[in-house]
Design goal:
Oligomer: homotetramer
Helix content of chain A: 10-25%
Strand content of chain A: 25-35%
Radius of gyration of chain A: 16 Å
Order of helices and strands of chain A: HEEEEHEEEHHH
Largest sheet of chain A: 7 strands, mixed
Largest interface: A-D, 31 and 31 residues
Number of helices of chain A: 5
Chain lengths: 181, 181, 181, 181
């Protein structure tokens, strides 16, 4: 999520802290959100994967895969990069053939602006549901990755572990797949 | 495509020729169309699969996977049944997590009604793009299965091998995946 | 919803009770569901319209506009016919430019098959959200038409007035429009 | 399209030329593309509107409505702002109830990167089809607004008047509406 995971400050697309601050103060950033799912033999969603990590607001929260699209990067490549970074190199994400997000999420510093909140910036995020077939090993900043049934993912117990509107994003993803209880 | 491939006339969902004629004269049928595709590591469509078979109008044509949804059958199950029937048991179709078709195709006995034509009946078809990972062996009535690049699939040479509007369906599928040239 | 509203038994597309029963026993029917909404100046959904009427299961329920696609009828024409029949001739429905439903709803006589239930038949329904600009006057079989805010439409009080899965359909429609609470 | 149409350099969201250059060199910008259409009584697209204006590459070209999403601005508000700026205050655009774009367009300074090209920057654009009901009067930088039938809009004569991939965007929009010839 943060620039702290840049391999070096001079890698293409990565910004110095000063430049990032300047950019964040002036334009919305392009983000992606990817909801990892397990599917059955006929493609129906059976489980939703959620990371446990330090959210943008400083709380330890359940979250989906989320991150910035870099300068010069295709959206598909950004999706794959963030999925592999967060779920590990053996997750085998299956990006949809259709490049259109199932919804767009508008994150604002003001929590009341859209219901989606990021204290750091205004971001317009393209949201995807991504089946993963392989073995997921949360890497880097994530403390844990857990899988929830569709009913659990929309339960109060799980929803209250999410911040910034990610619980609502999960509901939109479930609805998109026809699996909202 | 036809009732000729019913294992027996008494299998659930299958109709006697008389009943099928009666139904066809009175209501639109529910159909599915599935466009088989090969995708690369980031999910982009690289090739379109098309069967060579006897079309509803009697011509030998390039076609996508197409067929009826049976009484009591889920749409996902109908998709999987027709894909396995036409591409063989090792095709490994990956049905999308999202149950919504990318377009609907309205086939009419009158070729001018919608641009999609089936001389046998009025059918409303739910159309899907389906990545297939495995080994495809066209079975039953198909004479051949060939894979075309996105540019080839929309070329005049291939388009003129299709009837009933299937060339247009291919274009809609390519556009949906952002790959229409 | 029923064939009782056929002007005469010989109108094109309408079926005699015997033929309808025969068809219903053998094939899924093609249906449409239309969720009427009011939108604000920038197109956001502000209210959901729901009819009060006798549902297929005999209860008096809150419902969306729903009905059969007739033989020879385009889906757009079926949508408009049912919207005008249920909301009156001055409702001014605005059908979307995109013919793709936001979801498909599979109604089965068995209530546990998909979560969507119609005791009369198996139907595959194409579901649309339709902004209506004009004056709605529920006609024919509807007892009432009421408008609910997005939060009200998803509240327990309203949900328990719905049967057959229509409460879930409302939630899918709200999610599709980004307005699910 | 350009910052030249900023009312003043200090309006919220507008950037000084230096800041804009800095941003463009480091992150993709969030854009919207809106394809204005005329629809008939049942919502089918009958005509596509295209502006004649100086494109980003300096040529006088046929274009759709396109522009940046400002810091703090909702996507719907950006769409409405650009539509009113380009089509005039009486155009009465009807934004869809669904906030999801029909496709995303990735513009790169390198014309071969995605097939969509903008020499000034990398932009990720959310593309919408927007019916307009009212009287369109192209304003500001546009030289002309013309309406084309679906067949004309996809004809070689019109396509060669477009640059940067806008001809392909038109084809994707037509396909999305089921009207690609």
């Amino acid at each position: 999520m943060g620039e702290v995971d840049a391999p070096t400050e001079t890698a293409p697309g990565w910004l110095s802290p000063d430049t990032l601050e300047l950019v964040r103060a002036h334009v919305p950033l392009v983000y992606i959100d990817a909801v990892p799912v397990r599917v059955d033999a006929v493609g129906r969603v059976t489980e939703i994967g959620m990371l446990l990590r330090v959210a943008a607001d400083g709380t330890i929260s359940r979250m989906v895969v989320s991150g910035r699209v870099l300068f010069g990067e295709r959206v598909r490549d950004a999706l794959m990069r963030h999925l592999e970074k967060d779920l590990g190199p053996l997750a085998l994400p299956r990006l949809p053939a259709d490049p259109t997000p199932f919804t767009i999420v508008e994150y604002f510093p003001d929590p009341d602006r859209s219901g989606f909140h990021d204290p750091r910036h205004h971001a317009v995020s393209l949201a995807y549901v991504v089946p993963v077939d392989g073995d997921c090993q949360p890497t880097q900043e994530a403390l844990d990755l857990a899988w929830f049934s569709c009913a659990e993912a929309d339960s109060p117990a799980v929803r209250e572990q999410m911040t910034g509107g990610h619980d609502r994003l999960i509901r939109l993803a479930l609805a998109h797949c026809g699996e909202l209880p």
